[in-house]
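Question: does this match?
>
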Amino acid sequence: MTRHSAILTNLLLSLPLAAGLLCTATSASAQLGSSSSETVTIPFAFTANHQQFPAGTYQVRRLPDGVMSLYNLQTARIQLLLVRREDGRVVETRGRLVFYHDETGNSLMQVWEAGTTIHSDLMVQPKLHQLVAKNNPESTFEVAMK
């Protein structure tokens, strides 16, 4: 009977912890659900904020506090990016990602959100904007989001 009592005591002590974790997870998913997300298929490997990303289909979501998430639908891996939000003057009709291409590969520079005046510049790679303006503006290209 002592063994059963110990199991029951552990279960009763664990219940408030489990309830607290459930409430926290529900709150986090509600916050994530409040931000919009779009899906994009990127047919090439790329870098963003000095992180490597494989080609694939991603769910892009802007989170609070200058963070954007890229969720790889094939691998179920989420990577967070630091971004700086910029407000434009025109409402975007479609979401898109802007990449810079050079001899080292493709680098994500900006994320434009459909239905808003908002776009996000990646924080860790500000020199890319200087390279594009100075050297070769034709070295950027866009991938549309769904």
Q: What stands out?
A: Confidence is low (pLDDT under 50) at residues 11-34. Residues 2-34 form the longest helix (33 residues). The radius of gyration is 21 Å. The chain is about 30% helix and 40% strand.
